[in-house]
Amino acid sequence: EVHLVESGGGLVQPGGSLRLSCAASGFAFGTYEMTWVRQAPGKGPEWVSTITKGGDRTYYGNFVKGRFAISSGNTLNEVYLQMNSLKVDDTAVYYCGYGGIHWGQGTQVTVSL
To answer: For residues 35, 40, 41 and 45, what is the CA-based torsion angle, rounded to 10 degrees?
Structure first.
């Protein structure tokens, strides 16, 4: 059974940083691209970032503008999203997943004064 468990969200002030983690199990982790998406209140899902299965290439949504970095664990079946210079508009539930159909339960990120 596929399990994707996100963690690391929380409340942070504008300009702050958070590091999200996604623990994966139940599938061949190293053979899939892993993706982060987010969903803000009242809005549809928005693609954030993808890392290739080898971890050698990363892709980001235009809004990221160098603020976020996706990575995967060397020995753990985990994918991370380091988020810096956070803005109020980054407030959303962040989900990790693969294949476009498998997603975790999400972790809430709130950026506010």
So the answer is: -40
CA–CA dist 8, 27 (Å, integer): 22
Token pair belonging to 15: 């300009």
Residue with tokens 């993808």: 50
At 11, which amino acid appears? L
Nearest to 55 by CA among 82, 73, 81, 37: 73
Q: DSSP for 35-84?
A: EEEEE-TTS-EEEEEEE-TTSS-EEE-TTTTTSEEEEE-SSSSEEEEEE-
At 5-33, the pLDDT tens digits run 999 999 999 999 999 999 999 988 888 99
Identify which of 87, 83, 73 has the alpha carbon closest to the alpha carbon of residue 107.
83
Q: Is 85 helix (H, G, I), strand (E, B) or coil?
A: coil
